[in-house]
């Protein structure tokens, strides 16, 4: 009976303890007192490439990637989540792990593992690579020739690990943003000149250069031009650009028609200068950028009315209260009549008046091919004179253009009361010379004398260095680089002299 009774108690205890054990283990797993089994963990690297042949993950240097342990299970399922983490399993410092982020620090091999406490559940070998750009192709969709043109830009990049090609993009640059501007993979020509587009990826670089011109909207110049035989005229077309006011392309000129040079009516230079050779008509094509225009040039006989009397010069002297003015100018072929015009500024005259006409014969022209005549001006009522003079040639077909104008400013004050002013000098160290200059006096017939004293020689006195000078400058040679000169200048006329200038010292 006792054995039966003990057995019943034992069975009852077992029946009661089983639920208690089940409940107890549930809470022990639930609150992490007991650690569950973990099944199905796998190391997964987002954007990493697993290469089966070498059983390794390959990641790119400096990339930070997300790590995942996959869809694992815990046994029992109601157990508290286990403490699972990632860890670098070596000390090569190739990788760094923070949480579930892995950063590739340097090229090489390393291992990582999924850790449950101190136990490695799964491990993987990681190869860190720095992919090299093997090829870079720069592609631009359209030609860029003129301001305002646009084109799309793109590139293909090939690296030695194809997995990473998508992460390699080309960076685009323009050598001059004022000519070519790149925005959102589009190139726009914004200015005139030459610029280069660069594409860079890794250690590869490709480039394409462009010369951008202004688009020419119009070439403006008269359709017909007339020049004379022997006349030079430069074509000056006005180039209208689009947009306006840009630097236009170079202008070129072409003679049209197939003629031998000796039969051409004109000579056309590369800069657009036209020279009339013989009577006739020629067509010239003017080309600028994308535009051209053809004009007609007619060459006619030389007209005397387009020519000027050349090289008018004068000298004068005062004799018995009269100013005798001697005029000379170049003889103009086939012009035998000349008018001399004078304006007396002393009398406040505003217009020139014809004061003399002369007739000559070709036989009277000397070997110097000069025409000479004189004017007499009475000084009785006014000694001071301020005169302007020019000459015009006359023919039956018209007059020449006037000559250059010559002026006379005469002040009869005695030279003894005048003084040379504004004397100055500079040293030319390279040549060991002194350049002296002074102000010209009113009478063009005055000559000048220069006196110097070399202070490097204590015995030296002032001496005449040069006289009969018609200009207001002189170059003085010195004895060497040690220069110390005193200089003064006087003016001379008809054996009389002016007051000497101030003495200057040059050293």
UniProtKB/TrEMBL annotation:
Protein name per its UniProtKB record: BIG2 domain-containing protein
Keyword Membrane applies: yes
Transmembrane segments: 12-29
Organism: Romboutsia maritimum
Stored InterPro entries: Invasin/intimin_cell_adhesion
Lineage, top ranks: Bacteria, Bacillati, Bacillota, Clostridia, Peptostreptococcales
Keywords of this entry: Membrane, Transmembrane, Transmembrane helix
